Sequence to fold (206 residues):
Amino acid sequence: MLILWGRMNSVNVQKVVWALEECGVAYERRDAGMAHGVVDTPDYRAKNPNGLVPLLEDGGTAIWESNAIIRYLAAAYAPGRLWAADPAERSLADRWMDWAATVYAPAMTPAFYNLFRIAPEKRNGEAIAASVEATEKQMALLDAHLARHDFLAGKAFTMAELALGPLVHRWLNMPVDRRNRPAVARWHASLAARPGAAKGLPLPVS
Fold:
């Protein structure tokens, strides 16, 4: 049985939980990080020197970084479905996974952090506003893409949805003024309807 270390209010843990559900593999999730501790223990640091969550153990293999874990699970347990055999086809999912980590998440995270991790009297309104503006710019790009494609990599659900979907889910359920993005709304609804998404796209966001 696979073991996943991480707390469920981490969006990166949510990604991996959803990936495990989509792959249909047996796993056990163990709380770690923030109030749960664990991540600073010598044993955990030996497996994940960053001391962050998630960490996935599959037998003697320990994988950290959420997108790396998603790629591992897709290749090992869902080849031809979540993991395309053709490198060119697979690159369509890969690019959106990297975009989610390097462009989208940095834009949205300051607003989320201020609204959900900081006491109201200590929130930085300017940081929230700047984050919302930056996120709207990326949402416009995403909406334009999804207006032309059913899913991120084309016509099929892939590992890219697992990486970006939980981040967009957070955005769509944050207490901020957002512009209507019809294609994103259609895409998000299709993700939320998947059985595996019940754990990967939790409500309320926190």
The radius of gyration is 17 Å. The longest strand covers residues 2-5.
